[in-house]
Structures are given as C-alpha cells and as structure tokens.
Design goal:
The chain has 336 residues and is of the alpha+beta class. The chain has 2 domains: 2-74; 84-321, Fumarylacetoacetase-like, C-terminal domain (Fumarylacetoacetate hydrolase, domain 2, Alpha-Beta Complex), CATH 3.90.850. The protein has 8 helices and 18 strands. The chain has a 7-stranded mixed beta sheet with strand order 7-6-16-10-11-12-8. Strands 1, 2, 3, 4, 5 and 13 form a 6-stranded antiparallel beta sheet that branches. It has a 5-stranded mixed beta sheet with strand order 9-18-17-14-15, with no helix packed on it. Helix 4 (97-107) packs antiparallel against helix 5 (117-128). It is globular and about 60 Å long.
C-alpha cells in the first residue's frame, strides 16, 4: 500500500495509490495525503476501508511520470500544502555502526582519547537503546533539519548552497508522523530518504553538526503504509556522466540499529512542542553508509540513487552546486 502525491499544471494536485504499472487516483476532493490522513484519524477508521471508499476508476501510467516525461509530476509523498512551516524535519544519528565508524574517523584526529564522543554515543545505544516494551531506553543523538521548505521530491535537485563546504548523500528511511487534534502522534508510514548533509563542515569540528544539517533533503517517491521495520536492505549509487561512479549495499531497520523504533519515537515525541495538533513530522532514522565516508566528493549534476527493498521505486536526485556570489544579510534595526 504505497501512496503518491501528484501535481498537474492545469488539473492541480491529486493523490494516487500505486498499483504497478499504474497509479490509481483517489477522489478529486482529496488533494493531499495530509488531508487524507487528517480526515481518517478524525473519523477513527482504518486505512484500508477509508482508502477503498475514495479510489476511483481513473489511473495514470507510472513510468512517464516517474521519468519526468509527463505533464503530471511527482511531489513529495507528504507535505503541509497550506503551510510548509508546519512540517518539521529532524533525525537521529549514530544509530548504525557504520555511521558511527565514519564519524569516529572524521573526528578521532582531534582527540587524544581512543573513542570519540560519536562512538561513545553509538555504544550507549548498543547498551541501552533496545529496552523492553514499555520501558524507556537511552536517549539517541538528535538533530533539527529544518521545515517543509527544505523538503524536495523525487528528481528535484538537491542544492549545495554557496555558503556550504560540501554536500553529500545520506541514504536513509524516514518515518512520517501526523499529530492529531488531540495532540497524539500517529505514524502514517515510511519513506525512502536522502538526508543530504555537509560532511566537510561537520569534519572541521563536531560542534558544527547542527549547522551542517540545515540543508535541503529529499523523500519519496512513495509513502509506504505497511512496511515492516525489522530489516530493510537497500542500495545507494552515485551516477556521474550517465555511468555508475560508486555504489554500496546498505541496510537499515531495527536489526541493523542500536535502538528500537519505539525508543527513537519516544525520545522525539516526549517534548510537548513536538506534539502540536496539525504538525507533520519527517524523522530520519540514520544512515548505514554514504559516499563521503569512502572519499567521494560530489560534483554538479551527479545523481544520487537510493533504493530500499519493498519501498517502491528508487529515489533519484541530481546534485546542483550554487556557485553564485555570497550574499551578506544585515539585520535591520528598528527606528526609535
């Protein structure tokens, strides 16, 4: 059960159910997954009967849409159409050993200790990140990624801004959550994601992790409603000039992580400001590998391909480097 959001220059927005090789459209009254799930939660019904009541007999061929050869375009599979600032992007790092090892290599030269804080954080997860059901485990690393304005769709470029040091792929799975009118988080499903970060900035000093994350990122193309989060194999590929430059098999899910999904969700939603009614959350669960960790420096027009098993078609995004002149922003003082 995978949902997509579509945009047409004349016909506007539609929601569709993927039934390969077709996309079956929902009733035209439903123009976003945000609207669909808000209504479903308020009516306190299940996804399947609610969805089946809205399916039409109209369908579109998926291939030309996916390949950007149609007037219909894939949008992100979730968003807040009226107010993108209601969509919060965040994540948990150091949940996979490979990620912790890469961070250890990035920062170990700055420390006399044999273990960096990054590796210590990962090991804390190994020791206490998988508590018994109903119990609270150790807190993971957490970072803020921005709001819905930073969220890009399949085939849209991920931009390395002119103030950045670098930009690099981070192939992940992200959870999608909607806060009900009663302030209760509801997990809508999962998406393939490219969290895309500035690893050179972070390498300068691990305290630069926070600003290195304030970058655009991509999710999609499909919202997966029925994914098992135990073991999810995948692959990340960098394509340069139409040829594969680098690729690696990756794995995520609880079996490959130092935390349970429940523990990660608890530590994100324990904060009251993360449970504001109507908020949409895109929460990244960490990466198993990325090209920067193997000394790959992305160039303009490189393509990043991310594919996880049972999550629909791959997420593909080109790299775009902003070489424009830096703009100095000056704060204006109010007149007294």
């Amino acid at each position: 059960m995978n949902l997509v959001q579509l945009q047409h220059p004349i016909l506007g927005r539609r929601v569709g159910l993927v039934k390969e090789p077709q996309i079956v459209l929902l009733d035209p009254s439903i123009t976003s997954n945000y609207q669909f799930f808000t209504a479903m939660i308020e009516q306190d019904t299940g996804i399947r009967p609610f969805l089946e009541d809205l399916l039409t007999r109209d369908s579109l061929l998926y291939d030309p849409i996916y390949e950007s050869k149609s007037d219909w375009h894939l949008s992100t599979p979730v968003d807040c159409p009226a107010n993108p600032e209601k969509c919060m992007l965040s994540g948990t790092g150091l949940t996979h050993k490979a990620s912790a090892t890469n961070r250890q290599k990035m920062h170990e030269s700055q420390l006399a200790s044999s273990l960096t804080d990054s590796m210590k954080m990962y090991l804390m997860g190994e020791q206490g990140g998988k508590p018994a059901p109903g119990e609270i485990g150790v807190q993971p690393e957490w970072f803020y990624k921005g709001n819905g304005l930073n969220l890009k769709a399949h085939s849209e470029p991920l931009v390395i801004p002119n103030y950045a040091d670098d930009g690099g792929d981070e192939p992940e799975v992200a959870g999608i959550y909607l806060i009900s009118s009663k302030g209760v988080p509801h997990r809508l499903g999962f998406v393939q994601a490219n969290e895309f970060s500035d690893h050179i900035m972070e390498k300068k000093n691990y305290l630069y992790l926070a600003p290195s994350k304030i970058r655009n990122c991509a999710i999609g193309p499909e919202l997966v409603l029925d994914l098992s989060f135990d073991s999810i194999p995948g692959k990340v590929t960098i394509v340069r000039g139409g040829k594969e430059l680098w690729s690696k098999q990756i794995r995520t899910g609880e079996d490959a992580m130092s935390h349970t999904l429940a523990n990660l969700e608890y530590h994100h939603f324990k904060y009251g400001q993360h449970r504001i009614p109507g908020q949409l959350h895109v929460h990244f669960f960490g990466a198993d590998a990325f090209s920067f960790g193997e000394n790959i420096s992305l160039r303009d027009s490189d393509e990043m391909h991310i594919s996880f098993q049972n999550m629909g078609r791959p997420l593909r995004n080109p790299v775009q480097i902003d070489n424009g002149e830096k703009e100095y922003f000056k704060v204006q003082s109010l007149q007294l």
